[in-house]
């Protein structure tokens, strides 16, 4: 069909997402999160996430169908995240999708979660989602920043040509926020708390290290270093811990807001500078921001400014489409169908470390 009706299922982490699209039009995006159950552990517990998916899946599916005003019979295809993510969590969504496919006879598409974060930019029903009439910009990049990933990608074709230009070599950006928030006693998830507190602090009060920015890692435009477009956040996290210890050892009050602001500045500075550098050196003219850390006010601000200076257009989808959701899975499934690519069948297994 020209404008296929696609049901998308997402269960790679703590969000149970069911989204429905018709071609490039978003019909509904229903998400249930188990985050409340993980808060007291200070991180997502895989076993709890898996069980929560099991509880939430059918109600989330029913709500999505109801909101979109369609039935399973109307659907042309089912798309499901098959990786990367938590193995047990992925398995719930994949099993549910396979069962629906077998029961209804609808074709099933296995979807790469990271590419789906980009595919969401093709939805045309929201302002500035990155696309006009279902067409991705020609020289497109994607900056994905969340609790699980920190990557800069070049997208030549959403269906078959996505290239990884750079990524974190240790913690993901959101993970760094969460770990530093724990050090500062701000609770979990830490991103929103640090973002808020940082507004009351002085980002210049302390200078935290920017990982992998030394010449031996960066090289030059002609002779690129081994980590020119990569990030590292574990040294930064350690530097924050040392800093807190020093204030405590001196018996001084820990300037939590200043540390939050200075930490945030270090993260955002290095993310935006390396992403913009990678884009400039690859002729990328449009870049899509995705992942939970895309909610960060300073990241949006500084990346926006640097993109303007570099002549790059930054696309920031609405926040509910930046965080994990089923609509992005459905959107990419629809793209595959419209590109004439056949379904995956039901013999695939979830792949928690899918590249
Ligand atoms: O995309 P997401 O909902 O889930 C995955 O990790 O895939 O991202 C969650 C991450 C958490 O680490 C959270 O601390 C971070 O995004 N986050 C933020 C902000 N809001 C959420 N980090 C910085 N600033 C924020 N405003
Ligand atoms: Zn994600």
From TrEMBL:
Its EC number is 2.3.1.234. Keywords: Acyltransferase, Cytoplasm, Iron, Metal-binding, Transferase, tRNA processing. Substrate binds at residues 144-148, 178, 191, 195, 296. Residues 26-330 form the Gcp-like domain. It is found in: Cytoplasm. Fe cation binds at residues 113, 117, 324. Coiled coil: none annotated. Its cofactor is Fe(2+). One of its GO terms (molecular function) is tRNA N(6)-L-threonylcarbamoyladenine synthase activity. It holds the Pfam family TsaD. The keyword GTP-binding does not apply. Binds 1 Fe(2+) ion per subunit. It comes from the Bacteria. It catalyses: L-threonylcarbamoyladenylate + adenosine(37) in tRNA = N(6)-L-threonylcarbamoyladenosine(37) in tRNA + AMP + H(+). Belongs to the KAE1 / TsaD family. Required for the formation of a threonylcarbamoyl group on adenosine at position 37 (t(6)A37) in tRNAs that read codons beginning with adenine. Is involved in the transfer of the threonylcarbamoyl moiety of threonylcarbamoyl-AMP (TC-AMP) to the N6 group of A37, together with TsaE and TsaB. TsaD likely plays a direct catalytic role in this reaction. This is tRNA N6-adenosine threonylcarbamoyltransferase. It comes from Paenarthrobacter aromaticivorans. The lineage of its organism: Bacteria, Bacillati, Actinomycetota, Actinomycetes, Micrococcales.
